[in-house]
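Key idea: predict the complex, not the pieces.
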Amino acid sequence: MNTLHEPHIACHVEDLTVSYRERPVLWDIDLDIPPGVMAAVVGPNGAGKSTLIKAILGLVPPVAGHVRVFGQPVAQARRRIAYVPQRQSVDWDFPATVRDVVLMGLYGKLGWLRRPGRVEKAKAQAALEQVGMQDYAARPISQLSGGQQQRVFIARALVQEADLLFLDEPMAGVDAVTEAAIVALLKAQRDAGRTVVVVHHDLQTVARYFDWLVMLNQRIIAQGPVAEVYTEANLRAAYGGQLALIGALRLGDDA
Amino acid sequence: MLSPTLITVALAAAMIGALAGVLGSFLVLRGQSLLGDVIAHASLPGVVAAFLISGGRGFFAILAGALIAGALAGLSVQALRRGAGVKPDAALGVVLSLFFAAGVVLLTLAQTRGGSAGLTVFLFGQAASVLRADLLPMALVGGGVLVVLALFWKEFQFLAFDPEGARAQGLPVARLEVLLTLLIAVTIVLGLTLAGVVLMVALLIAPAVAARQWVRGLAPMVWLAALFGALAGTGGAVISAVGQGVATGPVMVLAAVGLAALSLLLAPERGILARRNRQAQAKKALRGRQVLAALGGLGADHANPGYAGDQAMLDAYLGTDAGPVLARLQRQGYVLPASLAPETGARRWELTEAGRQRLEAPDA
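Result:
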């Protein structure tokens, strides 16, 4: 039982099926994300992008299938995984400072009964510097803008020093400057050998930001290097009725 | 006036108030205040049953009865939500009423059998029924609750802020939730003789709501909620002692809610007055030039220099009521109410020629 299954793949998903109230949300997902890529998960609204991430992380129970991260079941690979949920999934009026939130990234590693100390605070500060929020450590999170909230969440993931990062719509509702900063930051993570998986909603920027692409619409439509997967046929298969929009997109990209 | 009874009651009220403030902070932050109310009401049938079975008001028997009833109520809520698809608030409401009604029926049955005169205490609480001998077990159990809370402090903090993030790191969130709910249930049972099942929820929530107004972190909030709870407790005990025969529990609740009301009104950053004040200052700081520039910008966006801007849009853009400044600009001849009569009835303004020149002129 201890032999690793597909250890050379950062995230290996086989036959994964998730259903809510007898309706499948994800159907028979087979997915392999190689290490060291920056991957986008795209698909229309309701395609199950967030659910896929949550199912991989074990936050949503699958009815079938299994997941391996670097060959291990997720429960045993938690220390190697970091997760940035959608910003709106928490109450930002919670009484906590920016530092408090970043420190939460270390709670899993710290284990029971241990409190974050000097070492952890230094790590949190370093992570905040990476996202350009070092001057905000003592700020209450209720005073942050949307883009700042997102940076804090990313800092909480960076502080884990994980090999595999999942981010759910990190570019949603942030300004252009923050978006550029986040992309640069994630690319740096990939260049440092980490694997980054991002749920993304903006087809315009897919080819510029990412090198690996997973196209999803309840089933996997296509997966692989962006250049191979980002084709009109695949987009048609994933987005169906929104074709007119996609035609415009393709032209815009070529220009 | 400082009778031994009053000292006993005041001590008990302070302890319970502080403990309820601490645990209530987590209820409030997790948006589960109604759950506290359900646990409190649902404990009644358990308390009465425990009384009937054990034949007395023994602390641990009552505690056990209340916990069993509370657990049954919790399971019923789950069954209604998951099994029958009832919405959470409706499920909580139904279960609360069901258990409370069952408790009252049991209570009346017990009373007709006689020998259970002390039971109505649990409805609204009766501080005078707290005996000196109750203080030590109360302190021990309450202290135990606080120790457990302190041991799992960082996990409970994570759970309250971001349960999914906590699960993604491998924390056993479901078990931690059960533990936290258990601590809250124990706190509620400790407070029943003082505040009763009907009012207990106020002691959990009011000090926490009050404390949230003044702080920036979870630990300060919890400490302050404890202080507010203790103040409301002792205050309630003393006031009710002075006003002969006034029930302590309700006075405690009134004191706690009073503190909450004052905090909502007066807190420096989050209080209603502070917000009003900030808005008033923004209004005062608003310059005519900003309003002219916003109007000009709207015109440019619509590629129509004569565009009439909606005043509500200007208010939203400038973050404050632009009305007084617009009135002044109109007197100065820079803006005019738009002559077109839109069907919406919105107030619209356009720049006059003088206004456009004023806008283009370099800063005076």
